[in-house]
Predict the structure.
Amino acid sequence: MLPRQFLAFLVAGLPVAFAADTKGVDFTRDIRPILSDNCFACHGPDEGHRMAGIRLDTKEGAMAALTPGKPEASRVYLRMAHADPKRRMPPPSTGRTLTPHQIELVQKWIASGAEWKTHWAYDKPQRKEPPAPKNAKWARNAIDRFVLARLEQENLAPASEADRATLLRRLSLDLVGLPPTPAEIDAFVKDKSPNAYEKQVDRLLASPHYGEKMAMPWLDLARYADTHGFHIDSHRDMWPWRDWVIRAFNANMPFDRFTVDQLAGDLLPNATIDQKIASGFNRNHMINYEGGAIPDEYLVEYVADRAETTSTVWMAMTMGCARCHDHKYDPIKQKDYYRMFAFFNGVKEKGLDGRDGNADPFLRLPSGEQQKRLDELTARIKIREAELADEKIKPLQEAWEQERLRTLNFAPPANLREGLLAQYEMDGTVDDHSGNYRHGRVLRGEPSMVLTSVGKATLFSTPSQVSLGALDLGQDYSIAVWLVQGHHEPQTILHQTGRLEVWWDASDPLPHLRRGAHLHVEAPGMHLRTRDRLVQTEQYHVAILHSQAGGLSIRINGLAVPVVREDESSVKPGTPGELTIGQETDTETRNGFRGRMADLRLYRRVLSENELRYLSVDHRVSAMVSVAVKQRPKELTQRLREHYLAHVAPAPTQEAWTDLKQLRAQKAILDDAIPNTMVMSELDKPRDTFVLGRGDYRNHGEKVTPNVPAVLPPLPNNEKIDRLALARWLVDPNHPLTARVAVNRYWQNYFGIGLVKSSENFGTQGDPPSHPELLDWLATEFQRTNWDVKAMQRLIVTSATYRQSSKATPELVERDPENRLLARMSRFRLPAELVRDNALAVSGLLNAKVGGQSTYPYQPAGIWEEISRGEIFSAQVYKESTGADLYRRGMYWFWKRTAPPASLSTFDAPDREKCVARRSVTNTPLQALVLMNDPTYIEAARVLAQKTIHEAGADPARRIALAFRKVTGRQPDAKEAAILQTLVAKQMTRYTADTKAAAALLTVGEYPADKKIPAAELAAWTNVATVLLNMDEAITKE
Amino acid sequence: MNWKREMQLLETRRQFFGRGAKGLSVAALASLMGGKAEAATGGQPGIPHFAAKAKRVIWLHQSGGPSQLDLFDYKPQLKKFHGSELPGSIRMGQRITGMTSGQASFPCASSMFKFEQAGKAGMWMSELIPHHKKIADDICLVKSVHTDAINHDPAITFIQSGSQQPGRPSIGSWVSYGLGSETEELPAFVVLLSQQNSVNADQPLFSRLWGAGFLPSRYQGVRLRSGKDPVLYLADPAGIARDGRREMLDALQALNKIREDAYHDPEIDTRIQQYEMAYKMQASVPELTDLSKEPASTFELYGEDARKPGTYAANCLLARRLVERGVRFVQLYHKGWDQHNNLPRDLALQCKASDQGAAALVQDLKQRGMLDDTLVVWGGEFGRTVYCQGKLTETDYGRDHHPRNFCMWMAGGGVKRGFQMGETDDYSYNIVNDPVHIHDIQATLLHCLGVDHKRLTYKFQGRWFRLTDVHGNVVRPLLA
């Protein structure tokens, strides 16, 4: 046994509030956690791994291994206290050891009779009358009576009430996530009515920002994000669901409805659009479409995520631990896991999906206007499609094809070889076939042959350069080539010093997962580019014509296309140098050529329309027609049909075709503009669910049907067993967990730590509640008020407990560092989004718009691009917003799972890959760097400074007082003001001496600097504002 | 009540880069833990569990899956089978990816490249990696690594976090959680992403690969980027000079101190310290990334590429500079090893960009005497198939993902030098001898760091999680 002295030291030195004195051992608080954490893994619910037939998670099992009242005759105790380390439990291989203190507790527990209780969380909450503390008049509501009674037990007194400025700032940050304005604080301070505080509570609960604040932790739980998460991680649209959550909180939707709509809104009779949107809760999980991934594997992952997330969010149950085997600690069988899984295994979804935005099933949400337009377009398209039906066109086209074949003439226009300087057929080589032997020389890259719809072409798969020699094109020339742009980066197609520059600019996304770039042609004094983007990877016939008389023109597929005349040409007239394809090295503005080329022709004359038509159309059509119908690939058939409709068919048919193309284009644009959101929707026949051996999708075991874990109350008999039944069961008054779990998380939002600290786990491995009776009282109160969410928030924030000051003595901090006893209000750093929102709000930059699509605030370049796949997929390139969208709240920041908003991550925002019930709160140097250097905060500081200067006038003391007040809600004291006075004087001296530096600082951020304020002065005050925004108090809820 | 753990968490909550805790019964705690003020390094008490051979790790992850068949796993017999169908007796119905599962045939493709033996152990290496031959006597080559996953996302997630599905802490964050840091001026866990220099651009990475999972987020890797801000938001904005910044900081600290005196919240004191550390980082990080003082010999060793920030070679050099300064775990990524087609051309490009840098790093650490206590790990998330993906021609072939065996090497602290283990069949399709699972690699790496992988745990959702899940064995034969 240990020396008594040492034990006494252990207990006395314990800063955590729940150290048991060994006199009164409490089974739930002291003993079950020891048994669970150290013994259950081998002596618990998992039958497959139970050692020596001993189980300690049930009363029968435990009593068989001990003798109440006699620790020295109890196997459990003897093995724990065994002198021989090899015989001592738990064995070293488990990596777990018991402290002497823990062994002592077990000994005392057995000695005092080994009282056993079932795990508290699985028993229905018991509503006890709130206790009557001695200092009854301190208590404002029932919460306070529970809290104070406990404090009195501990010989602690509550803190005094916080001053009004602090109180209103706290309340505003808690209920709407935004700080109060000085005017709001003034109004509150002046309000002498007895219910002044309650009036503020009601005002804030009625604010549209209340819904936003309540939604924020819900987004973590629901693993909300704007991208799919796996592999390529392209975008999705779930913001209509996010909007629904905000609306639901603002409308004070009762928590039971909130639950049913999100878990099974789609299954409700006559489900409304809103209820269907709500069901998207369980579509927020990650979705995969990695090439080569196996659909069955991911179908299982999606369903597992739903089952586990639902269990965590509503029951704080660690269901995931039973995926591979029976739960090691809680009474959950592996079969229970797959029964829960079965509820979610009937969704009309695919294993691999999401390439092009949302994955099936999703719901389109057109506005009234959009729907009208959509109906109209659809009807008109239908009519045109009927006119152009295959059975009508086919005979006509066949007749034309026959005619064409009969008269087929591959012979080119008579003089096509005239003026031909060089002709590169591009059959994988760069040889000249004109007979002039002007073969190209590959200087860079490795060209290879590839087949395209115009026959052979040369593929340049890496940035390439080919020299075609010092060809003199003369003043009148033509260049004709079949061209495919092979990469999204800007690249040189042709280059000749003194003469010509032909290039693609960087391609940008086009609708429907395509990209495209402009084609630029520069000659001395002339720079044209195509008005529209040409689609990357598509094959175009490009002709560049230059004549002394007519200047420069571009033809695409034989036709003139709209062009834009750029102001400057980089080509200076001079002696023509070597003509090259591509360029030697890759620069920041231009790379070597990548893509495909076929039939590159260089002429020393301007080609005629007829010749261009031959090169770009006839040549191709002839090639197409000569392929036998049966051998034609689908693409060819379609191209031929399009050619026929566009160029050959009778005039009315051609018109119909032109119209149809336009209608389809309009509809495509409209379709892209109509938001959609993923929802739940059941297959007619749900998939079979099996127990999966070791959780592996290939390993089917016993077939199971949906049901709830046996340790919890059963489902009602008379209902259909589906998700709707599950949702209703969760909010049944007999359910022991749902209400407790919900109110505990509310508590966590206000006090930083829940009454049950492990808010994600109410199982035996979780933390026991600090105030079990209060937790139960709140849970039953929540049910009693018909799950009134606002009433519950009101109850908590109007308690005297909440209204305490957060000032503490060093002794109290030492004794209760996490403030579990609540002898003060908790003081902790704001969540990531609010750190930013707060800076935007106090500076006046905040765009308070509620809801809508996600936006792209300032973020250093490259954070996405360095890790993303690039090319054609969405959400690979970060395009910063401009204007008001820069200043929307942090919760609307576009959340890319594989690269979440950088500055929010630094402040502990999760990546949203999985459900998160509790964020860590760290305190790091990287956070200091964000607040000091992120343009968001520099700009906010400047705008705060310039507004303050305007409002406060010339007196530095008044400026300091006002800015300080905006940031903290209170007046600075004399010492604080003096520090800032000194700082501003020093900074003024600096910037007066270095106005360049001042001007540089003022350029940070898009919001214009106030030119009326001298630059040195504004810069100095900007830095004062930066100091204010960096104060611990500024990012802390006090 | 798990009070001991609670106290440890409280304590580590006070620091980020290994700064000692202040206040809060630390003295009491330290004496409980055996009297040693462990807090100085910020790791977990009791860790290392035993004497460490390696103090730090540089993990060179070759993202995409390098072809073992064309680099290390020499199969001369395969020439005979070139173009013939992979026998069913070899494939044994193993699952293959959705990219080749529809292929009508699975013709074997022998490597086009010449192999030579290098070093005392006679390691076979292909002509694509000439610089590796110089370190043959320094590395420990494992030719029989295998993994459970068959596609990139789950496979990279698996090798870096021990689980195919997201949510677990990365290996670097486990190590910095367990062992803390040896430097106060740099993060314990640094991530380097190398620029793409091959044609194969389809290898995305994910921040979860260096994420902290359920560990407190301060253990996540810090990306060190090329350019003006090697660490995000490191540089002061234009118009703020160093001494001007100092003035601001002094005012800030004075204001925070006033608050601390009134509220006695230890977080305020921590914040004051963190601002000082940030200020120091603003000097130490640029010094770290400034290669201008490296002698010419450095660039002879690493190659001229190392002068270009963001290249693999430059990152290898940076990795050396990082560990010199006490960084615990450097995770380096090199994308572009996914040769489904055009393998001969693309793999050659990929090797050209990486062979010298990796070899130079080992040689450089060795000449500085640091290889003894630094562990370098090289490898991808899986290997590649012997059968050809796409059309097999005289000069061209592609290979699909192959999880059943691939090659990795380690060098330095704790592992044998000039040693190879593991053997595959004639097709490099199945392991014949000494299989080494990803969890075994992870267990072995931790072992070299003096950590018992079964005892480096963190409780989340009621379960004591570890990097190796419930698996993993230390690979004793390769330990020095």
Q: What stands out?
A: The CA atoms of residues 43 and 52 of chain A lie 8 Å apart.
